[in-house]
Amino acid sequence: MSDHPAIPYNSLLLFAESVFRKIGCSEEHAALAAESLLAADLRGVDSHGVARLSGYVRLWEVGRVNAQPNIRVIHETPSTAVVDGDSGLGLVVARKAMEIAISKAEAVGTGWVSVQNSNHFGIAAVHAMMALEKDMMGIAMTNASPLVAPTFSIDKMLGTNPICVAAPAGAEPAFVADLATTTAANGKLEILQRKNLQTPDGWVQDIEGNPSNDPHILKQGGALLPLGGDRDHGSHKGYALGAVVDIFSALLSGANYAPWVPPFPAYVPIPAQQPGKGIGHFLGAMRVDAFRPAAEFKASMDHWIQGFRNARPLPGQEKVLVPGDPEREMQQERLVNGISLLPVVIKDLKSVAEKLNLPADF
Amino acid sequence: MSDHPAIPYNSLLLFAESVFRKIGCSEEHAALAAESLLAADLRGVDSHGVARLSGYVRLWEVGRVNAQPNIRVIHETPSTAVVDGDSGLGLVVARKAMEIAISKAEAVGTGWVSVQNSNHFGIAAVHAMMALEKDMMGIAMTNASPLVAPTFSIDKMLGTNPICVAAPAGAEPAFVADLATTTAANGKLEILQRKNLQTPDGWVQDIEGNPSNDPHILKQGGALLPLGGDRDHGSHKGYALGAVVDIFSALLSGANYAPWVPPFPAYVPIPAQQPGKGIGHFLGAMRVDAFRPAAEFKASMDHWIQGFRNARPLPGQEKVLVPGDPEREMQQERLVNGISLLPVVIKDLKSVAEKLNLPADF
Questions:
Q1: Is the ipTM here above 0.90?
Q2: Are the Cβ atoms of B228 and A183 closer than 8 angstroms?
């Protein structure tokens, strides 16, 4: 993907940390933010990793990211809380919200936290997976700015609104399903753009709502399509799932929802008449032993996972994958061999370094 | 759809109730089971309504349904419970489990109940929607016998594993998303069979895993496909969602999972080496005011819903729908005009009446 040699994980982690410290984050927040961000690069979700670092800095420059937020619970019950992220980095706010969910799960079996007044939280998996080491299932979702047209709609009403569910196993690695509720997310379009290829049917539509195969169509006012693509292929289900994420993340918390979610690029104006605060997330933790002894559950998960691994693969396919397999394999590879970045991303990181007067040793 | 005049809802409800009483259900259980079953017919999910009544009776005949179950909590925390359905009708067991979820939500904000040792529960929506009148969000899911091949798999490893999420609104009707995690469920195949039409791409594959457009292919060893259809169109996401439903419903409860879930037709043998008990469900209830004042939440839901209704429809489409709209409109129509049944379903109901020596006044 790049002529530039792969960069060690630690170099990128330390650089991202230095950037977050430089814009005013505490040591603790800078470390959390960098770790959350780099988790995307490690897991192969390149669109959500250091490629976005300059975007976070620009949001801070225009005052939309508060580097020293007072992240606080504004309402709670034994199993629930609403957190006000105080315009902090979602990369940090979601981690703190998940800590609250986990501590509620420790007390009453499960914990559920809806978050308002936050920003982009990176990949959902990094937050959901915090639950695993506690023998809990973890759930993370977030809304996002409107790029997706519901079934039968010209207008873009929802974000790619991802859902992650992580479940611990025993001898097998954990089950981690992390999915945008669209047929394909933006990162997949970018790959096709670079390769000068068309999109398959059911990924995008143009500004008038006609089916399109142009991976550049979003820049021309087009839209991503919900998982399923069109009505005949179940797009009303992908739309419903994206809507559920919006309701959990924003309607329960008081964040902005639907087409009013603020955009990630700092130069795009925030929609008028905001009905809520910032963007919304939803984090959940369920103690496995609130249902069954953890050892029993994990033995069943191992049996479940082995069943899928042993399913007969289609002709031409090597094996049936379990959700989380490709990302875990990528992480193992990148921790050893480093992370390859596109020249345009490296250039972008170097310009961040220059702007903030930081060394960039890569 | 039928030359037979539409049958009033109440006639079918009373008939189903009489059938459930006749096989030994208590008055209360018979009423609950009939109401759960008929909710499918009212909402237009004809494959899950009275068309299945004879199937439930056959499961009772072979001893796989216990008409007088001792439905009981076998493990709990303040926000969770595991329920043993004692081989009862899922139509009743899931209602009882949802009552427990609601009562836990009243106490600690949310309630989550995983169910083992149950049977087919009808449509997910009827259980999830119980939460609405309490100003709670309701969640219902169930696993089901293996008809679905995961991405890259020849083997059928999952059921159609539906998810329902219901959220109360204020002036607007409630949001109710109820979806199988496949591109299309069995009922849609049956409609195409009757019309002698092919399926769209991405619905089914044949016994060797080749793409197929034959709506009869399941009878020849074929499989339904996860939402998305194939890898290029996101089937790994539909697969992951179906897997999540299986984990919540069966791995947390100790029910059977993956290809070991017992089949609905009584004549199909139960898989050998069952790892759990019966089939599994998962029910959740979240008090809206565990997050925000209910009036605020419901006002936001109204605003959200109106936003989607006012989105510009695609050329040739009348309007953008909100999840739950088509089913609610069908219910309003069928409560007034009655329920049209296919001749084959009427014949089946009459033969149940004859077998159990019950009047069938329709």
A1: yes
A2: yes
